[in-house]
Structures are given as C-alpha cells and as structure tokens.
Amino acid sequence: MKNLPKVKLGIVAVSRDCFPIELSRKRRENVVRECRKKGVPIVKIETIVENEKDAMKALEEVRAKGVNALVIYLGNFGPEGPNTILAQKFGGPVMFAAAAEETGKDLIGGRGDAYCGMLNTSYNAGLRKLRPYIPEYPVGIPSEVAGMIAGFVPVARIILALAKLKIFSFGPRPQDFLACNAPIKPLYDIGVEIMENSELDLYDIFLKAKGDPAIKAVARDMARELGKGNRFPDLLEKLAQYEVALKKFMETNLGASEYAVFANKCWPSYESFFGFVPCYVNSRMASRGIPISCEVDIYGALSEYIATCATELPATLLDINNTVPYDMYEEAKKLVGPYKANDLFMGFHCGNTSSLCMVGGEMKFQLIMHRLMEPGKVPDITRGTLEGRIKTGDITIFRLQSTADTVLRSYMAEGEVLDIDPKSFGGIGVFAVREMGRFYRHVLIEKRFPHHTAVAFRHAGKALFAAMRMLGVEDIAFNRPAGMLYKTENPFA
C-alpha cells in the first residue's frame, strides 16, 4: 500500500546524571537485541541523554538517521526535563518506556529506579502538554519492552499518516444522510487537510479522463480481478475511466500532503450522468489503501483510513444495517457459539468492500437504486457493485466522528464475521460483537453516531484506542462486558 507512511523507529536511552550511565547503555543494547529477535526494525541512537545539550545532540542524530517515531527509554531514573524536551522538539509520535530491575543479586550498583522516573517524566510531559504513547504497563525487562515497542508501530503509523493526510470530498451529502455530519474544524485540530469540491467537479474530471491511455490497462486489471464474477464486461472501460480520473486528481491536488482519501457523492443524481454506480471502483481503491467513502461521509473516509493504518490491510465502510432473524440464529446455533441473538447484526453496503475481504465477489447492480431509478427495466445505470459475502474472521468496528458542535468522539469494538450465509444482497456479512445490543443502545444511539462504521479486518482495538488518546479524543467508547454498566444504562432494566 503506497498511501501509508513507513514507520522508522528510533530508540534513545536517557540517564539521570547521579545514576550509572552504563546501566542505561547496557539496557538499551538489550532492548535493541530483543527488538531484532521479534522482527521489529529499530534504529539505535548512540547519544545517551543526561542533560539538555545531550537532548539536542540526540535530536540531531535522530533527524540525521531519518527516524520518524521515537522511543525514549528510561534505562535508569532518567532526567525528566531533557526527556520531555526531546519529545517536544522531535514533534512526531513518541513512546516512553522504562526498565524494570533484572535481578535481586544487584540492587545496589545495578538498581535503576526507572519505575519511579516514569512518574516524573509523565508529570513533566503534562506540563509541556505532550500526548506521548505510554503502554498499559510501561516498565519491563528488555523482552517486554520490545513487545511494547512492537505495539507502538501501528499507533505511530496512524499519527504519522494523519499529519500528512488530505481528504477530498465531492458533493454534499444526500438528503436524509445528515447523520454523517462533517464539521471540518476538528479535522484541522488533528492536522488533517480537507479539499471540498462539487459534483460538477467530479463529473468534469471524469469527462476529461476519456481517452487516457491508462484506461485500457485498468480495465484489463479489473477483468483479471473479477474473473468469473465479471458479469458486465461492457462496463469496465467506463469504470476504469472513473478510477483513472480519481488517481489523476489525487496526484495533482495532494499539495503539501502525502496521503489522501475520498468522500464522494454516489447517488441519486450520480447514476444519471456517469452511467454506473461507483462501488466497484471504491472497492479497488480501498485495496490500495485509498478508501473512498460512500455518501460523502467525510469522517467515514477518515475512519476507514485510520483502520487501514492500524492493520496495513484494506478496510471497508458498512452500514450497521439489520438484525439477524431468530430463525436464522436458531438454524446456525452451532456456528454462532456463545453469542446471544442481539450480539449479532448484519454489516452491509452496496458493494464497496475490497475483493480481498470477500468470498466470491461478483459485479452486480445496486438493487435498491434499481428500484428507484430503473423500475421494471433491465439494469443499466445502476450496475457496478461488487457483491458477495464478507470473509469470515476477526474484525474491529471503529469510528472517529465530530459532533455537530465540533467535539470529537470515537468508538471501537472487536468481534468477528461468522461463517453464516446472510441470505441477502450487497456486500454483506453476519457480524458478532459481544454485548452488541447494549453497545448499540448506549454508545451508537446514545452518543448519536451515524449508521456507517469502518471495519478493520483484524482485532485492532488496542492500537486504535491508543491513537485516539494521542490525538486528544476524550470520549472513547467500547463494548463493555456484562456487569460493567454504561453511564446511561438503567441498572434495574
């Protein structure tokens, strides 16, 4: 995926001047060795930071080595001022971790007190209004710290990506989709750029792409990808023209940004002018790490992209759509396992999910739009979806959303797609999330989240939660286990 940053980790050890500097140096070496054992590439910063001059020297070394995500490691108590000055001046994602004592045989000369030093460091980080990544338990022996560093990588990728992301939107949201409200001020607050355009702009770039020599190659690639699912081969050149137009627009308009996503109008007037639905093209762009959200859902596109950064896998945007009928639940009891009926729901969209995340995807027509636009006719302008079952496996549903009064909120819930036939149309699957019924009522409804959710095809709650904290999102919800009440939950119900 070319639309994601490459994380280049660096580790710098710090040492309080009244503690042995060799303790920090030795422990840093051990952490680097453990990182390499775990396959976590990391750049060793030779400078040990004891004072502010050292912090500036380390910063020069960090920049010279091209490091874009920094681990500040307390090999002993550490100097909290220089620690946090380094973090502040670095400006990118920073993780703090500290060394645990290794043996009871050396607790005089070999005691580092980093357990205590982390407290001072965190206090000083607060004074400087820093939001570093601090693992759940940030003190450990080298193998444990290496594990923490591995967990920092997807978090750092999200933070780096958003700092250089631009969202391209085309058109206003359709009527009755105001739920996907998109105040843009919070985007700027987290460093995301946005370029809003009209539907006419979208149509214009599509028309201007006609005859581009890349179109035939893209159409051939579409035919290869669809294989036996290529039910409308005559449509592929039009779809390819649209894909080429979007890629060209992105390359031309990135400006100061490096990464991009789209939030595009896709109905109701779209089909009459373009002559197809754009769902399949959206699915292909998602496969390349460039999500295109439906219905001009700006925060949906952002959420999809964050999910992609967390997993390095294509994500999708689905409606939290319909319940699973009781008869289907009973028929599939062996496949359902311990889940209750209201732990299940169907995630659906017209056909925007990457073929990599589906079973037996086929190009079809959008049934709902066909009813509206071509009733009683052979499908024509409503063709272009990619439909089929969403593949079985682990997922995380996630959304970052601004309220109407520009406050950022987020949620994440881990679950799975079950191996159950949804018996319906579109890109669709039967999703299972523990305590989904309560989560639906006391998070999705209570906090007025839209019906669209980003789906990461892996359990990614840990990285997503940490990234939201680093972005300063204070309202982060998750699916609480039974017995852990939501603030609005009736204890007598």
Instruction: Give the CA-based shape.
Output: globular
What count of helical segments does DSSP give?
Answer: 17
Percent range for β-strand residues:
15-25%
Rg calculated over all Cα atoms: 25 Å
- Report the count of strand segments: 18
Q: How many structural domains are formed by the residues?
A: 2
How many angstroms does the end-to-end distance come to? Answer: 48 Å
Return residue spans where pLDDT drops below 50 for at least 5 consecutive residues: none
* Biggest sheet: strand arrangement: 10-11-16-15-14-17
Q: Report the major sheet.
A: 6 strands, antiparallel, barrel
Structural class category: alpha/beta
Helix content: 25-40%
Average residue pLDDT: 96
What does this structure look like?
The chain is globular and about 85 Å long. β1, α1 (21-37) and β2 (43-44) form a beta-alpha-beta unit. It has helices at 21-37, 52-64, 80-90, 114-127, 142-163, 185-189, 199-208, 214-226, 236-253, 270-274, 279-287, 298-311, 326-331, 333-336, 367-373, 436-445, 461-470; strands spanning 9-14, 43-44, 69-74, 94-99, 139-140, 165-170, 193-197, 259-264, 292-293, 316-322, 344-349, 358-365, 383-390, 393-402, 408-417, 427-432, 452-456, 475-478. 38% of the residues lie in helices and 21% in strands. The chain folds into 2 domains: 9-162, 3-Layer(aba) Sandwich (Rossmann fold), CATH 3.40.50; 164-478, no CATH class. The protein is α/β, with parallel strands linked by helices and 493 residues long.
